[in-house]
Specification:
Structural class: alpha+beta
Helix content: 55-70%
Low-confidence stretches: 1-49
Number of helices: 15
Distance between the termini: 35 Å
CATH class of the largest domain: Alpha Beta
Strand order of the largest sheet: 6-5-4-7-8
Number of strands: 10
CATH architecture of the largest domain: 2-Layer Sandwich
Shape: globular
Mean pLDDT: 84
Number of domains: 2
Order of helices and strands: EEEHEEEHEHEHHEEHHHHHHHHHH
Strand content: 5-15%
CATH superfamily of the largest domain: Ribonuclease H-like superfamily/Ribonuclease H
């Protein structure tokens, strides 16, 4: 029920024993870094409190401690629903990764969403900065009417819609061309084995050449299509990756439209099936996607105005500090090696300019660290996908399948484990990042409150 040493999963369990017939309990051995090995029981009985109830109560108490400062936190939320035994409404704070809501609801209309999110925001003393979601009407209404904030389309879904429209078609065409080439080559080989010549052999040779040309054509189409998708992804940033300069929502919108039109032109040249509904759906989202760029820059400008800085210092923060920190952050979090290399190349000059800038060199180390902390907060405030929630929902769905259903208490336990025991590479938990303070080790805190475990059954005779 806690992380295994060196593991990255939120829950890492190893079954050690099972009690006799009539007992719905399993015993698991669990160990966490900086904690002694220990045992938890996973109680299957629905009415049992056990370790799960202790974990939930401990997490609730720590949550209340975290809200005692009275500070209002700005939430950048990702909202989605998942379907297990019951429907769950899920809301996550994207910068910290903290799960704010995992609540059972009868439906996913505006009213249930507003009620559960309002209740959590009031308990946490938080306000919504903007919401990232798919284009469900209830979720758009939740952002624009319920919280009067920006409703950001999920860029993950937008790219996925493009992929569903074209990727499978390209893959099938390439597969069919390869199969046709293999059949033509086999037929030509049989001709040679039977030493038959003449017009039929010549036609088979021409057919092989035609099939080989088709394979070459579709082999070239695939990387071209992927390059357009990659450029589309690299466009939606507050900086132009060609020279790491500031860009506006208008510029981003034009570039997004250009890449989408290039993909559509590629599809038209190779006679892909027409998918007008998918194209229209993607095009409608582009201006709203690009709006995040101006919104993000407005937040940065507001911070700089409150600091009452001169024009020179503002230019340094926007043109040197922010691109340097932004490039380092996204370069470290991008998995694709090709995109990672492009990001590092784009922001390499900004890093050099920041380090050698006269204002950077004038700042004492504590002041420079404060500036970098502010820049990291601003960089984490640029969230364009809800893929973290999608991954969480997929994990819950798999666990629901593996356990053949879940007791009502189990999702609450997993939420507490996610927030207070799931650790990033730097060792921090989502709750620590959200509340801006550390919490004790969950395993070491809960273990003393667990009663002695039942002994295993004795062999007869």
């Amino acid at each position: 029920m806690v992380n295994a040493p060196g593991g990255r999963d939120v829950v890492s369990l190893r079954p050690q024993a099972r009690r006799g017939r009539g007992h719905a309990e399993r015993v698991f051995r669990a160990s966490a870094s900086a904690s002694p090995p220990g045992l938890f029981t996973d109680r299957r009985a629905r009415g049992a409190a056990g370790a799960g109830q202790t974990i939930v109560e401990t997490a609730h108490a720590w949550e209340q401690e975290g809200t005692t400062t009275g500070a209002v936190r700005d939430i950048i939320g990702a909202v989605d629903e998942t379907f297990l035994e019951h429907m769950l409404l899920v809301c996550m704070d994207l910068p910290s990764g903290s799960l704010l809501v995992e609540a059972v609801a009868a439906n996913r209309t505006y009213a249930p969403w507003k009620a559960v999110v309002d209740e959590r925001l009031k308990a946490l003393g938080a306000a919504v900065l903007y919401l990232v979601s798919d284009r469900a009407k209830a979720l758009i209404q939740l952002a624009e009417m319920g919280f009067e904030c920006l409703s950001m389309p999920d860029f993950f879904h937008c790219v996925h819609d493009i992929g569903k429209t074209y990727s499978l078609t390209i893959g099938r065409r390439l597969r069919d061309a390869q199969q046709a080439l293999a059949h033509a080559e086999a037929r030509l080989m049989r001709r040679h084995e039977h030493a038959s010549g003449g017009q039929d052999t010549w036609q088979d040779v021409l057919l092989v050449e035609a099939r080989r040309a088709a394979v070459t054509q579709w082999t070239a189409v695939q990387p071209t299509y992927r390059l357009h998708l990659e450029t589309l992804s690299l466009t939606l940033h507050p900086f132009n990756l060609d020279d790491a300069t500031v860009q506006t929502s208008t510029q981003v919108t034009h570039r997004l439209y250009a890449e989408v039109e290039a993909i559509e032109a590629l599809a038209a040249r190779h006679a892909f099936p027409a998918c007008h509904a998918a194209r229209t759906k993607v095009r409608k989202q582009l201006p709203a996607l690009a709006a995040l760029v101006d919104f993000w820059w407005a937040g940065g400008e507001q911070d700089l105005e409150h600091a009452e800085l001169s024009t020179r210092w503002r230019a340094w923060a926007k043109e040197c500090l922010l691109p340097s920190v932004y490039g380092a952050h996204h370069g470290a979090h991008t998995r694709c090696a090709r995109r990672k290399a492009k990001l590092r190349q784009a922001f390499e000059a900004s890093q050099t300019a920041f380090e050698h800038h006269v204002l950077t060199q004038q700042l004492p180390c504590p002041a420079l660290e404060e500036w970098k902390t502010w820049a990291k907060q601003r960089v984490r405030a640029f969230q364009r996908t809800s893929s973290a929630v999608e991954g969480r929902n997929g994990y819950l769905s798999q666990m629901q399948h593996n356990h053949r259903g879940l007791p009502p208490q189990r999702p609450k336990v997993w939420t507490a484990l996610h927030n207070f025991d799931g650790r990033a590479a730097d060792g921090t938990t989502p709750a620590a990042r959200f509340f801006g303070r550390g919490f004790p080790d969950l395993f070491a805190t809960v273990l003393p409150h667990i009663a002695a475990l039942p002994r295993p059954r004795q062999r007869r005779g």
